[in-house]
């Protein structure tokens, strides 16, 4: 069995590489819809329900400032809108517009094709195990927040 410090380093390096690979794939998939990976990510976070910028940032694991900049650009381009938030007067909710929903839908065929191609290389059962392991690792890292 590997040393714990080695496991942490190897896990982080693998996650960094995966992040880069996912971002590159997302950029390719989002391009035909004239979106960037970041814009797709923010729109994707509010497809099911409008969220405040801070909620999107928490869900995506990115900074509030980055989400705010992206949300402002999406609103300026007519892909998202700010709505009143009944729970907080100053923290507006971000919601997709019809144009934003159409842009995300335009990504779906390429997204499905990429997923199907990946499933020919990585057994779907193994892929699901990997997803569970990644979620477990993320949850474990969350428990370290605030610990020294």
UniProtKB/TrEMBL annotation:
Matching PROSITE patterns: HTH_MARR_2
Span of domain HTH marR-type: 4-139
Matches recorded under InterPro entries: HTH_MarR-typ, MarR/SlyA-like, WH-like_DNA-bd_sf, WH_DNA-bd_sf
Pfam family, one: MarR_2
One GO biological process term: response to stress
GO MF assignments: DNA-binding transcription factor activity
The organism's place on the tree of life at top rank: Bacteria
UniProt protein name: MarR family transcriptional regulator
Organism: Gordonia lacunae
């Amino acid at each position: 069995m590997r040393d714990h410090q080695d496991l942490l380093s190897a896990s982080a390096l693998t996650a960094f590489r995966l992040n880069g690979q996912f971002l590159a794939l997302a950029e390719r998939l989002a391009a035909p819809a004239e979106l960037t990976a970041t814009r797709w990510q923010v729109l994707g976070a509010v497809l099911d329900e409008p969220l405040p910028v801070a909620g999107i940032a928490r869900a995506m694991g990115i900074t509030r400032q980055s989400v705010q900049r992206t949300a402002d650009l999406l609103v300026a381009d007519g892909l998202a809108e700010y709505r009143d938030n009944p729970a907080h007067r100053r923290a507006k909710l971000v919601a997709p517009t019809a144009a934003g929903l159409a842009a995300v839908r335009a990504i779906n065929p390429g997204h499905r094709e990429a997923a199907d191609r990946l499933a020919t290389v990585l057994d779907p059962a193994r892929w699901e195990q990997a997803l569970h392991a990644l979620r477990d690792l993320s949850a474990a890292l969350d428990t370290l927040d605030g610990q020294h």
